[in-house]
Amino acid sequence: MAHANHNHEALLPLDLFRVYEVTDPFHAAPYRLTLRLAREKRLLEDISSGRKLLRLGRMVLETRELALARAQSQAMYL
């Protein structure tokens, strides 16, 4: 009998958007980035491997509304 793997991320809808405060070496000041939950794992892998030179700070918003997330950020990773 197979057991389902139930973790918190698996239960969240993939059309969820998160806005994070981020820093990188190319911008003098922190900025906000909208991230689609479906791509979050890939971005975290890219950051940990050094392919993306971002540092995620605190999450400031979580919503299903892209327009709201877009209005709260200066960059998007969808």
Provide structural commentary:
By secondary structure, the chain is an alpha+beta fold. Helix content is 29%, strand content 32%. The protein has 3 helices and 4 strands. A 4-stranded mixed β-sheet has the order 3-1-2-4. A hairpin with a 7-residue loop joins strand 1 and strand 2. The longest helix is centred in the middle third of the chain and has 13 residues. The chain is globular. The N terminus is likely disordered.
Offer a few descriptive terms.
78 residues; alpha+beta; four-stranded mixed β-sheet
Number of helices: 3
The major pleated sheet works out as: 4 strands, mixed
**Arithmetic mean of pLDDT:** 88
List the secondary-structure elements in sequence, H or E.
HEEHEHE
Radius of gyration: 14 Å
